[in-house]
Amino acid sequence: MQTTSSAIKGAIQLGIGYTVGNLTSKPDRDVLMQDFYVVESVFLPSEGSNLTPAHHYPDFRFKTYAPLAFRYFRELFGIKPDDYLYSICSEPLIELSNPGASGSLFFVTSDDEFIIKTVQHKEAEFLQKLLPGYYMNLNQNPRTLLPKFYGLYCVQSGGINIRIVVMNNVLPRALKMNFTYDLKGSTYKRRASRKEREKSNPTFKDLDFLQDMHEGLYFDSETHSALMKTLQRDCRVSKIY
């Protein structure tokens, strides 16, 4: 596949535009257990078809995982279909220049609403297995601190699979950050490298946080209690599997 950045971004926009638009013809109903395991697939040839538009990218197949379940999640988070499509498809996606340690690519919509991240097969598989627990948690724990997942997709072309997940963007590019910490709850090799520290806006890690914020963070008792309850409920989601 011509896995140039523009080809990937174009395929993502075309695929999501088609699948979300197609969902509007499906009536609203309660989410059933089998909905979490549905995978819908559509072929988008460059010359177009009766169902799909012509485009300037290599032919590709676009897969949508659990479309009805993710439609429910988007509704629950107050994301209207037209707004979702407008944010993702109306303007070119912006590729972030700082990929994760996993080698994932990150794209952000031009309005800063959504982050699109490429994920490995194992990550996508794990997320799909989590969906029933994620669904239950959202209904029982509206204050969840888990990422807000809006869609899970896969672009297939030339024998290559590019899996992506769409999430909320909690750090708009215009937001000025005084300090940034990537915390994982581990101290093993969790210190920012010398190269990272030399950056104008470095991302520090767990050992840096313990050193810099040795007195911790202070919350009033009510906020602390609510935060701990939310964290405990969120941790139960992954324990289901």
From TrEMBL:
Single Gene Ontology BP annotation: phosphatidylinositol phosphate biosynthetic process
Gene3D superfamilies assigned to the protein according to its UniProt record, in alphabetical order: 2-Layer Sandwich, Phosphatidylinositol Phosphate Kinase II Beta
Record's subcellular location: Cytoplasm
Name of the protein described by the UniProt record: PIPK domain-containing protein
Keywords assigned: ATP-binding, Cytoplasm, Kinase, Nucleotide-binding, Transferase
Domain PIPK: 4-241
GO CC annotation: cytoplasm; plasma membrane
SMART domains for this protein: PIPKc
Originating species: Bambusicola thoracicus (Chinese bamboo-partridge)
Keyword check for DNA damage: no
Pfam families (alphabetical): PIP5K (PF01504)
GO molecular function: 1-phosphatidylinositol-4-phosphate 5-kinase activity; ATP binding
